[in-house]
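Hi C.,

You asked whether I'd gotten around to modeling the 132-residue construct. I have! Everything is below, sequence then structure, no commentary in between.
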Amino acid sequence: MINGVNHIGIATSSIEGIKDLYKSILEGCETHEETVAEQKSKILSFQVGGTHIEFLEPTEPDSPIAKFIEKRGAGVHHIALATDNIEHDMQRLKDKGFRFIDETPRTGMNNTRIAFLHPKSTGSILLELCQE
């Protein structure tokens, strides 16, 4: 069951370039940095209440984030919806005709299980299902 927003992903060409800015804006918020090799991304996360704001920097020129920045520039990349049963929600949405980029869950930051819905089936918005 989808039970909230886990995080908002924002594409950036340089985490170092925005880190101090957002530490100033989000003063006191817990931060976490991690490189997720499978996603070819370095991630800086700020916990803001029950939601995270994640800044995603590409680590390879062929990564999805690099391609996004090349096409659209830096900015909001996706919204991640929290689920307590990713397989169930994937099947439920597939049964309703939604398309997925990921046919099975893969590993995200902090060993979460994630799967992206294709934006062509979600009104041009990239949505991610995220199970902690």
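If it helps when you're writing up: The chain is about 25% helix and 40% strand.

Thanks,
B.
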